[in-house]
Amino acid sequence: MFGSELTLSKLATREAAFRQYQIDHPILIYLLAFLIYVTVTGLSLPGATPMSLLLAWLFGFWHGLILVSLGSTTGATVAFLLSRYLFRQLITHRFGERLEKFNSTLQREGAFYLFTLRLIPAVPFFVINAVMGLTRIRVRTFWWVSQLGMLPGTMIYVFAGSRVPDLQTLADKGIAAIFATGQMAQIFSAFALLGIFPLVVRGLMKRLTSLSA
Questions:
Q1: Tens digits of per-residue pLDDT, 160-208?
Q2: Largest CA distance in the chain
Q3: How many Å apart are CA 58 and CA 33, to the nearest integer?
Q4: How far is CA 2 from its chain centroid?
Q5: 3-state SS assignment for residue 43
Q6: What is the DSSP letter of 165?
Q7: 135: helix, coil or strand?
Q8: Contact 40, 75 (CB under 8 A)
Q9: 89, 154, 201, 206 - which has most CB atoms within 10 Å?
Q10: How many domains does the chain have?
Q11: Domain of 151?
Q12: What is the DSSP letter of 7?
């Protein structure tokens, strides 16, 4: 019964209906997508990466970039505020050692330290949000530094998601629509860039540090 509803042609019909509804009610759809994304990232729930790819696929590169970029930063700020005002004792107990390190490095390097953490994802973002909430960094500073620092990685994820064909194309051409040479080249280039980008930034950071030393 349900299997017949999960064919590509059926799903393509539902996608077409959704996209028409999106055209008719753009503000409602964008607001709902934004709120869902903020809830997932603000509560540190799993699924932010697949959701970024999904939103990019649904809304395209530019609209998806704005939505995911603002949503991720707003969600991170929500998690930051929850840590600062509601879960301080729990977070301190869980990440006490990291908190000391974050505070000392933040005192030495200022907001540039947070910018580096956002550019080079060596520490999970939910840990950064939680621990930064217990430091002395201002909310406004946390927001704009996070917005800038997460933007390059967000652009790569959104680009990859936006390259996946719509379901009608998949229904017409089959899975080969994804594995077409040009399509795969774009997707693999995006994820290769995602892997190389932190290494490049880390090298630049070391060079800048050695020059300023």
A1: 888 877 766 666 665 555 556 566 676 677 667 766 766 676 676 667 6
A2: 68
A3: 10
A4: 32
A5: coil
A6: P
A7: coil
A8: yes
A9: 154
A10: 1
A11: 3-212
A12: S
